[in-house]
């Protein structure tokens, strides 16, 4: 059926794999990342961490062996304005090393987008191993993130930093259970995703594989648990100890400050590393010496693919004056056309367009990661009327940079 949807029989017929093929698919994916195959002991846990959703596969015509795979699971993504849209989380993408550069990924991507569209997904999202792969399939960098380190010697809270709430050490299980309930309330920033049960199972596996001991904490405010963090500590002998934050989520400024007050109070720690954090996370502003925090990397976070452009445009909010966009989608041509976008909503129109862009560029401005004028200035988007780029900047602006914050 999938091959029918992507244009009939091809050299690489894509099909949905059966449950008893999932381990082979996982091993294939691992081999493409140069990771050892799953052992019999590991498999039950690995299986539990596979989120519900189809795994697609391509088998070799002669040997029948699996040579390519891609999975997706269903989630929801927060949009500017607060609405959520169904999104397919794309993961476990790999093609056997002796079959690469023959179009296997292309077939998988096209089939997966068709499948996600049929399942009512408005968008697809992924975290890319290499940044040159996914633009051709309509994905664009829609959120960015940063890694930072905190030198504990210089990290002192300012006297006017928020106080309140209680931090409690829990077992990993208890912290996850308490926080998984609260998490949807905290996922308010554009680009954040709901986390299915399989995602939390994957986090448990990640925590089990840390070198140092793992600690889980919750923050409780006036309305109950509103934040949590999990971390491990590496304490080489001799050498300075590093506290590695694996996940930290919070509902607001008090829980953010409360969790960091605790983290900075942990004894025998020299520095703290935090990875994949929001670009504007205001830890520096809480401290007497902002240079105690050093950004060590900034990078692309969520690659977004708008599958149902009319719905995606209609679901977010806009500010300023309306404008007509002319969208081109080389993979899903049903999205092609002109859309009037403004504070009253977004809908198809016959009116002439002011901005002309491909669907990957639309994904880059959709959550507010990039200003439309930046894409015009760099040749990614064409403006056909004067002032259109600045007008689009105002329309798509968001109050905070988008962030995904959920790795998969
Ligand atoms: C990335 C990967 C899935 C690509 O599979 P593939 O079957 O070789 O891809 P295709 O043959 O369909 O290539 C499609 C296009 O992408 C390009 N491309 C594919 N992989 C690329 C890479 N790693 N770097 C740059 N370009 C790449 C191809 O050159 C081709 O370009 P074209 O359309 O201009 O001809 C495969 O190389 C792989 O499994 N890599 C290791 C695991 C990995 O990185 N997985 C992704 C996890 S997010």
Automatic annotation (TrEMBL):
SUPFAM superfamilies: Acyl-CoA N-acyltransferases (Nat), SCP-like. Keywords: Acyltransferase, Transferase. Pfam families: Acetyltransf_17 (PF17668), Acetyltransf_9 (PF13527), SCP2_2 (PF13530). Residues 191-295 form the Eis-like acetyltransferase domain. Residues 309-404 form the Enhanced intracellular survival protein domain. The keyword GTP-binding does not apply. InterPro entries: Acetyltransf_17 (IPR041380), Acetyltransferase_Eis (IPR051554), Acyl_CoA_acyltransferase (IPR016181), Eis_dom (IPR025559), NAcTrfase_Eis (IPR022902), SCP2_sterol-bd_dom_sf (IPR036527). Acetyl-CoA binds at residues 93-95, 101-106, 129-130. It comes from the Bacteria. The active site is at residues 134, 408. NCBIfam families: PRK01346.1-4 (NF002367). Homohexamer; trimer of dimers. HAMAP family: Eis. Belongs to the acetyltransferase Eis family. This is GNAT family N-acetyltransferase. It comes from Prauserella halophila.
